[in-house]
Amino acid sequence: MRIGSAIAHVMAGKMDGAGEALQPVLQLPDELRLATLAARLARELTPLLDDRHPLALRDHVREYCLGSTKMWQIPSG
């Protein structure tokens, strides 16, 4: 839900709204991060963030995606 909201804010040019929507997700400690969320951020949000967007937001998203090798995988099925 928050990632979708952030994508909508980025597409509307509202970077503050995107940052606010993602803040709770991006602040999760490594051991609570989900690989599925990192994959969605990388697949759907990262391509929208280019040089026109704040470096801090791009860096936070990149850090989350690279984050930790300890990310939890949601079992399929």
Give your account of this protein's structure.
The protein has about 80 residues and is mostly helical. It has one domain. The chain is about 60% helix and about 0% strand. It contains four helices and no strands. The chain has helices at about 1-10, 15-25, 35-45, 55-65. Helix 3 packs antiparallel against helix 4. The radius of gyration is 12 Å and the shape is globular. The mean pLDDT is about 80.
Summary keywords:
77 residues, 4 helices, mainly alpha, single chain
Brief digest:
With 77 residues, the protein is an all-alpha fold. It is built from four helices and no strands.
Helical residue percent band: 55-70%
Sketch the major β-sheet: none
Backbone shape? globular
Low-confidence stretches: none
Total number of domains: 1
Topology:
Blueprint: H1 2-11, H2 15-26, H3 35-45, H4 55-66
